[in-house]
Design a protein that fits this description.
InterPro entries: Oxoglu/Fe-dep_dioxygenase_dom (IPR005123), P4HA-like (IPR045054), Pro_4_hyd_alph (IPR006620), Pro_4_hyd_alph_FE2OG_OXY (IPR044862). Keywords: Dioxygenase, Endoplasmic reticulum, Glycoprotein, Iron, Membrane, Metal-binding, Oxidoreductase, Signal-anchor, Transmembrane, Transmembrane helix. GO terms for molecular function: iron ion binding; L-ascorbic acid binding; procollagen-proline 4-dioxygenase activity. It is a single-pass type II membrane protein. This protein is an alpha+beta fold. The chain has a 9-stranded antiparallel β-sheet, covered by helices on one side. Strands 11-17-14-15 form a 4-stranded antiparallel β-sheet, with no helix packed on it. It is built from 4 helices and 19 strands. The longest helix is centred in the N-terminal third of the chain and has 36 residues. A hairpin with a 6-residue loop joins strand 5 and strand 6. It folds into 2 domains: 44 residues; 234 residues, q2cbj1_9rhob like domain (Jelly Rolls).
Length: 296
């Protein structure tokens, strides 16, 4: 009698073990399918350092609408404090040329926002020239803005709000930096109530590079909490670029960084600046995203 009970218990254990094995096998198959489809990606790192995020990649398979042909698109995590990502080949060469051609006849000296009045004012901390393009002004701009919205859609958990650039984004700003021109480190978020009346706080910034730069012109994050020298382009940076986590301008690439944390608090590690151009010219285009709808 005892022997029969033992056999039944042993059979139940074997059945449970086979069930667990079957479930693990099915989960492995599902994971392999997701990896194959590009829905899930694994980090690939060439450095043993846990702070080296330069080679964390995710391939983008969706090309979407747009002017001209883009190269292979993939995203790269460069920092978690601040949260910063590079979208490679975000724009085609034709789209970069188009944005510059729209802007060139209307460029004026860049200004900064007065925290007391909300008006633009001249400042030595920003020596570039620039202009704004009306949001949704033509099909090419709408295609680019739709691509930005798809890339940057995000929810701030502390506020429960979903952030997209379709309603929450400002118009594109096109900027030109000549040799010696720069933008000193600053925050994109506001510390006053006046500038948050329209759209609330600035949440994130997408910076698109419209041209290559022979030397200098990097976007630098001096307060980033990561290993600055872990990026593979470290040896190509200017002296200014080596003072923080830096991204070299590359035509067609887009840099996305968040000025606020997921809980809707301001992120001081998002301090950033534009290093002086040493050789060549730097063209870029910026889209700022707000917490609420931004009325143009």
């Amino acid at each position: 009698m005892a022997k029969g009970r033992y056999t039944r218990v042993q059979g139940k254990k074997r059945s449970t073990f086979m069930l667990v094995l079957s479930m693990l096998f099915m989960l492995s198959l599902v994971l392999l399918m997701l990896l194959a489809l590009g829905i899930v990606s694994l980090p690939i790192s060439t450095d043993d350092s846990p702070t080296d995020l330069s080679s964390f990649r995710r391939k983008i398979s969706e090309r979407g609408d747009g002017l001209g042909e883009r190269g292979e698109q993939w995203t790269e995590v460069i920092s978690w404090e601040p949260r910063a990502f590079i979208y490679h080949n975000f724009l085609s060469k034709e789209e970069c040329d188009y944005l510059m051609s729209l802007a060139k006849p209307h460029m004026v000296k860049s200004s900064v926002v007065d925290s007391k009045t909300g008006e633009s004012k001249d400042s030595r901390v920003r020596t570039s020239s620039g202009m704004f393009l009306r949001r949704g002004r033509d099909k090419i701009i709408r295609d680019i803005e739709k691509r930005i919205a798809d890339f940057t859609v995000h929810t701030c958990r502390g506020s429960g709000k979903t952030i997209t650039t379709k309603e929450n984004g400002e118009g594109l700003q096109v900027l030109h930096y000549e040799v010696g021109q720069k933008y000193e480190p600053h925050y994109d978020y506001f510390l006053d109530e006046f500038n948050t009346k329209n759209g609330g706080q600035r949440v994130a910034t997408l910076l698109m590079y419209l041209s290559d730069v022979e030397e200098g012109g990097e976007t630098v994050f001096p307060a980033a909490k990561t290993n600055f020298s872990s990026v593979p382009w470290w040896n190509d940076l200017s002296e200014c670029g080596k003072k923080g986590l830096s991204v070299k301008p590359k035509m067609g690439d887009a840099l996305l960084f968040w000025s606020m944390m997921p809980d809707a608090t301001l992120d001081p590690s998002s301090l950033h600046g534009g290093c002086p151009v040493i050789r060549g010219n730097k063209w870029s285009s910026t889209k700022w995203m707000h917490l609420d709808e931004y009325k143009v």
